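User: Here's a chain of 272 residues. Predict its fold as tokens.
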Amino acid sequence: MTGWQSADMADVWLKVAVQRNRMMATATERMFAQAGVREGARVLDVGTGTGDTALMLAHRVGPTGEVVATDMAPAMVSAAATAARESGFTNVKTAVMDLSSPLGDVGVFDAAVGRCVLMFVEDLPLALSRLRGVLRPAGRFAAIVWAELEDNPFNAIPIAAVRKRREMPTPPPELVKAFSLSSASDLQRTFEGAGFGSVVVERVALTREFPAFADAAKVLHEIPLYRELLSLLPEEEHSEAVAEIEQGYRAFVRADGTVAFPQVTLVVAGSA
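Assistant: Prediction complete.
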């Protein structure tokens, strides 16, 4: 996950926060509901990124609650701390935390959430066991991951264009890893194997929208995850692949010129 730790990634993540939160809104609400987030709760936010979910949680738990927002990337944590401070939230603490390592003395939580982070964890069963260990009895952990690649064409199209020209390396690019937990049955078994009970997995449909085709196409050049994927190709194949991807994206242009891609996520939750 070295790409996630760069200042460049944090800057880009901040730049597209409004679009990302609009796109993820329905799934995020389901995640909070499944985690049992309530006023006065103490909530652990893993993989907070630049603090999007932490600020939403801070509003929900109110002044009598607390949010501990964590991420493995110091640049992300710094951005999240700044966002909380500038938003006037005094009930948000931030910390650098890697789910691949012991969590340390973080205390006990009523709930924990993780939006689009579990796919990048190297030893997921171990990480889930550690998260279960910091929850109070009956406390819940809820997370969002991406469903099958074929149900997410915005990402399926560029991945297919690169796979057509090159075999994916080991380990694969981060954009490919993002779909590594797309089996609902496997995800449920993994949570249960880590000791979680009352595990539920929901499919939640979303829409990724852009005001114009050019806005959709420029993601390929501006977001580090897509640049990493396309960097696998030599220059001449790179240009061919981009043209092929853009042609595929044109199928999602509406009559008014806006662009809308269907997306599907999985919201998984279990009790400690």
